[in-house]
Amino acid sequence: MTEATRREKVRAETERDIRRQARALLVAHGRDAVTLRAIARELGITAPALYRYYDSREDLLNHLCEDICRDLDAELSAALTELPDAPAPAQVFAVCREFRRWALAHPQEFALVFASTDTTVPCAAGGGRVDEQFGRVFLEVAAKLVASDPAPAPHAADVPAELHDDLRYYQQILIAAVADKGGRVDESVLHLGAIHHILQSWVRLYGHVALEVFGRFPFAVSNPEPMFDLMLTQMIGEMGVTA
Amino acid sequence: MTEATRREKVRAETERDIRRQARALLVAHGRDAVTLRAIARELGITAPALYRYYDSREDLLNHLCEDICRDLDAELSAALTELPDAPAPAQVFAVCREFRRWALAHPQEFALVFASTDTTVPCAAGGGRVDEQFGRVFLEVAAKLVASDPAPAPHAADVPAELHDDLRYYQQILIAAVADKGGRVDESVLHLGAIHHILQSWVRLYGHVALEVFGRFPFAVSNPEPMFDLMLTQMIGEMGVTA
DNA sequence: GAACTTAGTGAACGGTGTTTACCGAGTTGG
DNA sequence: CCAACTCGGTAAACACCGTTCACTAAGTTC
Fold it and tell me: Is A125 in the B-facing interface, judged by CB distances under 8 Å?
């Protein structure tokens, strides 16, 4: 069997090498530096050989995106499994802080995956499946937090009717995702107001992190971390649980 | 005098032409398409001639950023002056909606100015001056809104001590900015809690708009506009004024 | 009108993505 | 075992790119 797949084996290996080199170039010198010729040079082959593995540079970048999403997902999941028995608010806190830490440590990857007009992120919106998605861990743990709240959140009826369809659709997706993980949520608990609040939390989490990564706060914040933590505290507090 | 500046005149004109073409390329085909050779081709000159105007492509892109910031600023100001006597909440609402409208209509410009790791935005954070800054109009009008609120905002003491220095610094900048416009704000009205809330509003505004421009909402929102409006309503409502 | 400044040129260098024809080793079937 | 076939890799070529340099010609200044 080893002999039968020998060629496939070396193929898979060089494919990994290609992406590893591409990733290294991205990290070191940014997206524009991810060059087919540079990758090939580093691997000791020629650029056209890469076309045996990817249709184009664009295609390679898309696959790179997927890799990055997978890695981010793994890191977030790891941060979560480090405190399996912690209360839901603490878990949300941990996942969010890990997301910020990762983004600041990997600005080029963050920019490619989360702030690119041209790159179609396969693991992002569109599929509808919450699995294989960048915000998966955050959204799941946020849903769990809301679900763990016995009291109904305050602003449930504030959601305008125009949003009901979209939110209901996403509600089903989230409920299914939590169910897959062994949890059980009711529609009355994870109501549309709660769904909207989870989305708003994603807006704030993404907003802060992106502003920090790109340095677009209106003034130079000497230490953004307490500001981030304060935002999380307020965010989680507003989810209904008295953190 | 006309003859004395004749050369300068044509120089200024071609300089404008260069940026106009660069802008057109950016809009049409994205940042990577903004090519010295393509610009020159469109202008009927050769690429090296552009070096008489800009040190490098990077330099040109930075100047392009400034242009874009100026344009955005003008559009936001125009939206504001269209309702000069409107109550402060309505003004904030209008400026925010205009920002979203502009970003969605100019995704490439938005990406260049607001979500770029390499481009040092001269009109963004750093200078400390609120003038010549991207968020200027939003931040000023938000400050005005908070200032117009007679009642002290609820969460003034929640801000942790670590943030005081940064917020106090920005408080002075904002007060000075409002004062320049003829307004008058007191430190007790535009207190640190209010400053923090303005920053949080910027986080949410930026977060939503960027997520929409880059298509990074966790699921496909069929019509994001009511969601945006809802966010604004909540945001403005939390500023203390009963919108 | 001489001296000087300056916008623009053309050629060149090294880099890029991509296509094409080709080769040679790995695999497969008779 | 050998012919047929698959497939990863190559070299050459094309059309781009940013950037530098020597040079020209027109505008400006004295």
Answer: yes
CA atoms within 13 A on the CB side of B27: 13
Is there contact between A13 and strand C, defined as CB under 7 Å from any strand atom?
no
Correct CATH for B67-238 of 3.90.780.10, 2.60.40.3210, 3.40.50.1000, 1.10.357.10: 1.10.357.10
Q: Of all protein residues, which has its CA closest to the C1' atom of D21?
A: B48
Å from B115 (CA) to D7 (C1')? Answer: 42
CATH second-level architecture of A1-53?
Answer: Orthogonal Bundle (1.10)
* CB-based contacts of B49-57 (< 8 A; 24+ apart in sequence): B50/B18, B53/B11, B53/B14, B53/B15, B53/B18, B54/B18
Tokens of A23: 């990733």
Cβ–Cβ below 8 Å for B158 and A199 = no
Kindly report the nearest CA distance between residue B163 and chain A, in angstroms. 7
- Give tens-digit pLDDT for B58-98: 999 999 999 999 999 999 999 999 998 899 999 999 999 99
Q: What is the pLDDT of residues A171-224, one digit of tens each?
A: 998 888 888 887 788 888 889 999 999 999 999 999 999 999 999 998 889 999
Domain ranges of chain A: 1-53, 67-238
